[in-house]
Structure formats: structure tokens, C-alpha cells
Amino acid sequence: MVKSGRPLQSGSIYQVRRNGRIHVVAEDYSYKTECYYTLLSRELSGEPVDPDSQTVLDAAVVPLCLDKASRAGMPVADCIISQSCTDHLPAVLYGLNYFSSPSEFSLIRNPGEEREVIRHITNNGKYPFCYQPLGEGDEVVTATAIFGKSIDQGPEVEAAAAGLYAEFRIPLMTMVFIRTSRGYRLSSLAHTRYSSLSAAEKALLSAYITGQEFL
Fold first, then answer.
1. Which residues are CB-contacts of 99 (< 8 A; sequence separation ≥ 6)?
2. How far apart, in whole angstroms, are the C-alpha atoms of residue 28 and residue 138?
3. DSSP SS3 for 160
4. N or C: fewer beta carbons within 10 Å in the chain?
């Protein structure tokens, strides 16, 4: 637990107990991390825990994440899986190999720039990757969600934060969006370092952890 006034500690995992459930807060929910094994241990002991281990695995694979979000009624980016090339630029590229993370995406705008990126994220063609085409004027933007709340990001992002938390139950996440003329479309869900949070976001997260803010 974080004591009042004490800063969030890099690499630390916090467990918030509310209404018979354990909510695990961490900077990284990736497979085989300490956080992942914490979730798995709680599940194996029969304790209700959020998020669950399967959900964090799904959230880390961009096509699966977008499919799950889309089924829940949220607007998502078009996502095309390929082995060696893109059919459209500009685009956002994500790796799909064992070591890839949705936190590491590449925004490619000009022809030719994608070759080295694709070589890297596919490990010289051994693994597939996915790309999300961008239209003219589209932008990639990020926002933080803390227990389903986003601070000062506007009603559309705030609604997305609430919907994504309801679906994935991940207490701390970075929402990556493609912002178009028609609104926001989810691109991926990424990890969030405590050090990257604004002062207001740190205060809100600490309030949840210490029980000053109720779930």
C-alpha cells in the first residue's frame, strides 16, 4: 500500500482490496513479469482478482485487444496482419512476436521508411506484424486511464476509458488512439510508467491505492 504523501515507487506492485476483490496495480502486466505471476497466483488460490491473467495476455496482442474492444461496442482502428509489407502508408505498425509490446509502435509516413522497421519487428521475416492505415490528417494520440478515469482529456476519451476498464479491468493503462475527423479509434492498450503520470494522475492513483478514492 502507498501511505498518504508517499510517492509511487517505480517497479512496485500495489494490491487494492475492495468488495471482496483484489485489484492489482502495476506498470507492466506482460507475460512472465512479476505482476503476471501475481495475478496467476491469486487465481490459483481461488481469489477474485482484476485484471485476470488471460485478459492481460489478450490486451497485449493488438488484434485480439481490438477485437475484444470492438465486440464491446468501442470504435477501433482497422488492423491488417501481414508478414512482409504494408499495402498502405502512412500507417501505425506493431510487432506480433513473443517479445513485442503494444507500448512499442512505429508511425510510418513516407514510403521506404517501413522496410527497416518491418525487418526489426518481424525478426527478419520470422514473425508477422500488424499495421493500421492512417487517413489524411489522422493523428496518433495517447491518454492514461486510471481505474476507468481519464483526467482532462475530453468526454470522448473519458467515455473510452470507462468502457475499456469495464471490458479489461486493467487499473492503469495507456490508451493509444488514432484521432480522425470522425473521432477517436482505439489503436492499442499499452503499459504506463508511474514516472510518466502527471501530478493530478499520480494523486488520483495514490488515492485509489490508499482508499481515499473508492472503486
1. none
2. 28
3. helix
4. N
140, 187 in Cβ contact below 8 A? yes
Q: What is the pTM of this model?
A: 0.92
Question: How is residue 86 written as a grid cell?
Answer: 504494408
CB–CB of 109/89 below 8 Å? yes
Please say whether the beta carbons of 91 and 136 come within 8 A: no
**In the chain, domain spans:** 80-133
Tell me the per-residue pLDDT of 146-199, one tens digit each, with 9 for 90 and over: 999 999 999 999 999 999 999 999 999 999 999 999 999 999 999 999 999 999
CB contact at 8 A, 146 and 158: no
Residue tagged 505471476 (cell numbers): 37
Residue type, 63: P
